Amino acid sequence: MDESCYWNQKTFAIVTGASRGIGRTLAEKISKQMGADSVLLLISRDEKDLDSLQKAIETDRPSVRVHVGVTDLSSCDESALNGVVSSALAGESAESFAHALCVHNAGSLGDATKRCTDLVSVNSCVQYFQLNLASVVVLNAIFLRRFASSLSPVQQRKTVVNMSSLCGVEPFSSLSLYCTGKAGRDMFFKVLAKEEPDVRVLNYAPGPVETNMRTQLLHQSWTEEIKSGGLGLTTEMTCDRLMAILAGDSYASGAHVDYYDP
């Protein structure tokens, strides 16, 4: 597909975990490709970093309205998520957008020092899956319900991206919660693709990217399999790859696509 057919349209886009790492780089890249009068909703719990990103994007792309949703996805409920999306729309009709895009990037590693048999706290497990699974499921439903109307004057494109991982398809010692969360998210979005054929759904595994999460992993993990992982990718590299996959639009909806896939 010609990239101009995918981008350069009036778009409503959500990026979670947008304050740093992959989310921040991706938000910047998406903003550069959005058409005039687009809306970009940045969600994170880090208000200071979100504000700096908002200012940078608004300076670079004054035709794009950037909304900051300071939200802790590990503890918020559906009313808070509804409120964030409603505030970003600011009374504008969902049908006025040619493209609706939601990137579920927020997530956490969990405690990589622990084995499966060390996970004895129900509260810790519940909080982990609130951030890494439950909030994703609920925000996704809120997003798609907002853009479910058949009254759009244009053929509205809807795209959902789940930031996945090789850990969603292969087990790694010391990463039991992380692997479980990623596998659960992958399957949820596969089901979504089956249920909603008019929505383009992508599970994207970004590869080993040099972020704070990878630094934490290399520091905490007790397995040589992980510690000998070598150099990682930059956020620029993996976000450029994702942007190209989206614009090419040749993936099977619901598919798991890795950075290294041909």
TrEMBL record:
Record-linked InterPro entries = Biopterin_syn/organic_redct (IPR051721), NAD(P)-bd_dom_sf (IPR036291), SDR_fam (IPR002347), Sepiapterin_red (IPR006393)
Q: What is its EC number?
A: 1.1.1.153
Gene3D superfamilies in alphabetical order? NAD(P)-binding Rossmann-like Domain (3.40.50.720)
This protein's GO cellular component annotations are: cytoplasm
Q: What class of enzyme is it?
A: oxidoreductase
Subcellular compartments:
Cytoplasm
Location (main, coarse): cytoplasm
**Alphabetized GO MF terms:** sepiapterin reductase (NADP+) activity
| Any one GO biological process | tetrahydrobiopterin biosynthetic process
UniProt keyword list: Cytoplasm, NADP, Oxidoreductase
What is said about its interaction partners and assembly? Homodimer.
Q: Family, per the entry?
A: Belongs to the sepiapterin reductase family.
- Indicate what this protein is called per its UniProt record: Sepiapterin reductase
